[in-house]
Design goal:
The protein is α+β, with helices and mostly antiparallel strands and 235 residues long. Helices cover 21% and strands 23% of the residues. It comes from Streptomyces pharetrae CZA14.
Length: 235
Amino acid sequence: MIHEVDEGLRRLLGESGLEASGVEVVFDAPTRDWAARRSAPTVCVFLYDIREDAVRRGSGAGEVYDTDGHLVARRTPPRWFELTYLVTAWASRPQDEHRLLSQVLACLVATDTLPARLLTGTLAELGLTVALDTAGAASDVPAAADVWSALGGELKASLGVRVRAPLAGVTTTVAPPVTEGLVVRSAARREGGEAEPGRRLRYLETSDPGPEGFTGPRERGAAPARRRRRGDRQP
């Protein structure tokens, strides 16, 4: 899911015209060594914090059906996570960096969600909203100064971007639907020692099947006469 959010952000920033103007969009950690190797204008989208939104955690399991309406799997509810990014602009002059950062800010604040056309993989399959919060106050994540200190670099102008995305639940495949009846065999044997052939219980393809989807026992005629025992009186 994380790489799919990365791809959605890359596509969103690409639509703003950054890539068309020769600006790279990368997801590397902006360490001091990394910054020293940069030679082209770059927008760095660095993921530094991942936390679950426990309030939105669901329970139970949903059912997955095929095109014929048969149950094929059960899936636990998705779990929601908050991904926090540090977005920075890198160029030869501070003015150019500020221009790039302004262009990124205008692109991100123009939308509250990642558009569905930009989603891939499980995010596209789930069809759920991927929320986007740019430059908002977030008291429960590390401060930008602490992030820069951990990276070993100097403090730099940056944007905080938080994405709330679902992680697909676990899917468990169920047994295929029953299409044939059970075969009932008797232990009795014929005179030649050959086993009696089994009798298959028919499977009902109706909207109101009997117990377990099978037909009930076949109707019989009058009950057979009770076997006589020794001492029984003759009528």
